[in-house]
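Lab notebook: predicted structure, single chain.

Context: the supervisor wants predicted structures on file for every construct in the current expression panel, including those that have not yet been purified. This is the next one on the list. No modifications to the sequence; it matches the entry in the shared construct table.
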Amino acid sequence: MHRAIAVLCVIGATTMAFAQPAPNAQPAPNAQRPAGAGQFRGSGSVGAGDSPQHRQIMLDAMRDQFGVDDKQWEALLPKIQKVIEARRATQTGAGMSWRSSNGGAPLISNGSAVDTPPGKAMQDVRSAISEQDTTDDEILKKLAAMREAREKARADLAAAQKELKDACTPRQEAILVTLGQLD
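Prediction complete. Output recorded below exactly as produced.
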């Protein structure tokens, strides 16, 4: 029972990091929040909820759900961490964050910079479109490089997920699917 509560708290806290309150929403008087709820509320940028503390809580909850001994956990942990890192490496910082640079200027993307190969390639695309003298051919080359980096990161993630799936029992695989670590 405690294991299920720990996992639900982690899932709830992660979900709450991305949830937005309703306009003019007021908390109920004397409302109780589950332990850890909202603990990982971030700025909404890439990596929010991806702190070392969040990862450790998530890993501890997984281990509890798996019900494995130290030896079994030591065999699974590197594979789980590889999936987590591979998933992070797929991030580009793309998003629907828009701003106007000088009032009447056209709207442009103002996504977050991410320190991953696809994220760096996305920054190159952003730089190219922000400069008026960039040719279409230059933009197309940067787009192709970004797409190639993103596809490589996705392939690396798929390989890491396959390696982890192959090492899991069906129950462990199901747990990882519900936690979003396996597809």
